[in-house]
Amino acid sequence: METYYNPADLAKFGKIGDFDKALADKFFSYYNEVFKEGALTAREKSLIALAVSHTVQCPYCIDAYTTDTLEKGCTEEQLMEAVHVAAAIRGGASLVHGVQMMNHTKKVMM
Amino acid sequence: MKSLKASGHPFSISTLQLEHLHAHRSDQFADRMADAGLHPLKPTRIEIFQINVGKMCNQTCKHCHVDAGPDRKEIMTRETLQRCLDILATHDIPTIDITGGAPEMNPHFRWFVEEAARLGKHIIDRCNLTILLANPKYYDLPQFLAKHRVEVVSSLPHYTAVRTDRQRGDGVFEKSIQAMRMLNEAGYGQEGTGLELNLVYNPTGAILPGPQQELEADFKRHLLSEHGVYFNKLYVITNMPISRFLDFLVVSGNYETYMQKLIDAFNPSAAMGVMCRNTLSIGWDGTLYDCDFNQMLDIKIQDAPVHIDHFDLDALTNRSIVVDQHCYGCTAGLGSSCGGQVV
Ligand code: SF4
Ligand code: SF4
Hints:
The complex is a heterodimer.
Chain A: H1 21-34, H2 42-56, H3 59-71, H4 76-96, H5 98-108
Helix pairs in contact in A: 2-3, 2-4
Chain B: H1 14-23, H2 29-35, E1 48-52, H3 78-90, E2 95-99, H4 109-118, E3 122-126, H5 131-134, H6 141-147, E4 151-155, H7 161-168, H8 172-185, E5 197-201, H9 212-227, E6 234-236, H10 243-251, H11 255-264, H12 268-272, E7 279-282, E8 288-289, H13 292-296, H14 313-318, H15 328-331
The structure holds iron/sulfur cluster (2 copies).
């Protein structure tokens, strides 16, 4: 069955360089630099990546960073807490706009 | 749960496991080793005698590469153990690594440890922890092991009950903690006693293990604060794609991805330090192998007599180690051996 997303495509990510090598090289070298141990640990960065993956709803990133966080020693509870952080910010971001809705309501209504 | 052998599973036949490993991959391990200048792979020096004293075990863990369990009856005889002692007495091989199954279930275990200790060798017991509580006759094992200064190496796949039990069986975590407490009381894992209790972590699934140092810190923190038990080092090992773990990979649909992951993570530095270079593995019937994994795949040593009765150290030191596709499990990432990561 044909689908828009194919799990096997994740392994082909590097191939984006076939159409534009210079930019792909720049992207991957930046990417690798970002995930190195720094002021944040590699594990913390991986958990952030997992949360962001859920926000951008990228199935490739979700698979990749689920594996990566597990390999870095995170527990199922930690993974789920990271997803809730994403969900809370997403939900909160919608809800906080309720203030705008209320402001506008107050302005237009008697 | 039954062993693969008792349930008549095709993977209880080693040739069928090897066929499976060969059928799916074109990246030949031997070629990768050749690129790294490591083919044929040669031993450095035989420093460790890893003796598998039997496949009998009180547990039936899901990932077990030995396919051990209560239904396995293969046990090393006293004669074969004596043969090992004779060789150890006359050769400069400093370490005896006793494995199984649950080695303590071999009826000659205590006698063998006493004799080995008399030879002044460093002795390792690969103890699954729960055996200490399996029968009153094992309750005094911590004191016995301490008396003979035996290093205890024990599998504990995770510091949470849920992950450990999922791999090793219901209630195993709780019993393992009790057993660690017994070992701690006998002096194990305590600074200054010289009695080493080292734990082995392996991932509870089709993933690679993370860095040893970080995991060791996690294990120490959680086990001490939540259970009041302690240990010396954590050895981090990769699950080998053989036996019951191979079955799990195939059944769960993870086989291809896992193999590719191991292949992609091939690390020449890890390949330099694979354990078969300084270890000789002896099977329950006295047959010689390059490692415990080759033993379970029935891949015997080459270029030297294959039985302990015809032990020839020169020929063994000069032999070429037999490698195959499962060896990718030893060379992935930071590497994997019975002593943990190698780089
Ligand atoms: S305790 Fe060890 S030998 Fe026994 S089944 Fe588990 S992994 Fe295998
Ligand atoms: S599986 Fe055995 S023979 Fe192969 S690399 Fe590992 S230790 Fe050596």
